[in-house]
Specification:
CATH topology of the largest domain: Dihydrodipicolinate Reductase, domain 2
Shape: globular
Largest sheet: 9 strands, mixed
Oligomer: single chain
Low-confidence stretches: none
Structural class: alpha/beta
Bound molecules: nicotinamide-adenine-dinucleotide
Number of strands: 15
Radius of gyration: 20 Å
Length: 332
């Protein structure tokens, strides 16, 4: 059994707390840590763990940490945990600069510890099935993958997630990183792309609260992502539409259903429970620790998605189309 600590007991930690049930006796949560003592206490009570306000005091007693922290703290705290020989499941995005990301990759490789990025959508049952159907060309080659994420996420003005310096960017960097990661996973190497973002009607965001990305891939396929934190209503919610040569596959995560549309026929292919399915992600993390296999969402692949985002932001500022070739660490 592995001993773990949850560090950061804010909003997202709720998803982790519910997910531990799926792990059964493989994991014991021994500490719940938050600088806000009441949050640490509430989480510890729910998890049957000890509360703490300083993560350094719990490291000796754990094999792994789950870091669910503001983005500007990902790098310094993950570095310290890796240096202490702990496996790290780090919430997305990996870190807020290229230099920090490279530092973390190097540190995890040197320490020979798992560093997994918590891109939970890669473990969502509908996304996993969609990936299989696209890879197997069940409906032929994919030529357009569109992803919508429409939510209302409003932070106080002084919250770390409102400010570009602590968030690392705007809605695209913070939330869209899941979907840029998925576009690369589904469609391969991108060639070029554009981003347009605005904080119109989401004035609590210093950078964009609404984001539109279009990308072209080596195969000729196009990828699109529209994400907003300003939605006061929605029909599409969290939706994926994969247009393939012989039909369209629709994953509607907000209702937990996957459909195929061919001509005017609609077929229900899969149903799943609603939610983020964080449990699947944690199971994968534990599997990787136990087997020594690299995680599906490792730090290297995660950096490729962030590089795409940084190039898209940069090109948006300059008013040009972003060159997205050569994102990989092994490419020129
Ligand atoms: N995968 C998803 O769908 C998803 C959704 C929301 C958030 N997230 C990610 O989860 C992470 C946290 O986001 P959140 O929404 O929970 O933020 P939050 O602000 O609600 O929670 C962060 C918590 O960290 C605590 N904290 C700050 N500094 C600390 C320190 N030094 N030691 C211990 N605790 C400290 C804060 O007190 C707070 O309780 C971010 O990386 C975010 O991107 C992921």
């Amino acid at each position: 059994m592995l001993n773990v600590a949850v560090v950061g007991c804010g909003g997202m930690s709720g998803g982790y707390r519910r997910a531990f049930e799926q792990l059964g006796s493989r994991v014991r949560v021994v500490a719940a840590v938050d600088v806000v003592q009441d949050r640490a206490k509430a989480a510890a009570e729910e998890l049957g763990a000890e509360p703490a306000t300083d993560y350094r005091t719990v490291l000796d007693g754990v094999d792994a940490v789950m870091l669910i922290l503001p983005h500007h703290l990902h790098h310094p705290i993950a570095m310290e945990c890796l240096a202490a020989g702990k496996h790290v499941l780090l919430e997305k995005p990996l870190a807020i600069s290229e230099a920090e990301c490279l530092d973390l990759i190097q540190a995890s490789e040197k320490a020979r510890r798992v560093l997994m990025i918590a891109y939970c959508m890669r473990f969502h049952p509908l996304v996993v099935r969609l990936k299989e159907l696209i890879d197997n060309k069940t409906y032929g080659d994919v030529f357009q993958l569109s992803i919508w994420t429409e939510q209302h996420t409003r932070y106080p003005r002084d919250h770390w997630a409102s400010k570009a310096a602590t968030l690392g960017g705007g809605q695209l960097f913070s939330h869209g990183c899941h979907y840029i990661d998925l576009l690369l996973w589904f469609l391969g190497r991108p060639v070029e792309g554009t981003h347009m973002g605005t904080n119109y009607c989401t004035p609590w965001m210093e950078k964009e609260g609404t984001s539109n990305v279009a990308m072209k891939f080596e195969s000729g396929a196009l990828g699109y992502h529209f994400g907003t934190w300003g939605a006061k209503g929605t029909r599409l919610g969290y939706s994926f539409h994969a247009h393939c040569a012989e039909g369209m596959i629709e994953a509607h995560a907000s209702i937990g259903k996957l459909f195929a549309h061919v001509g005017d026929k609609e077929e229900l292919l899969e149903e799943c429970e609603l939610g983020k399915h964080v449990g699947n992600e944690i199971v994968h993390f534990i599997d990787c620790i136990e087997t020594g296999r690299p995680p599906l969402t490792d730090a290297r692949s995660s950096l490729q998605g962030l590089r795409a985002i940084w190039r898209l932001y940069d090109a948006e500022q300059k008013g040009v189309v972003a060159d997205l070739r050569g994102l990989g660490l092994d490419e020129s």
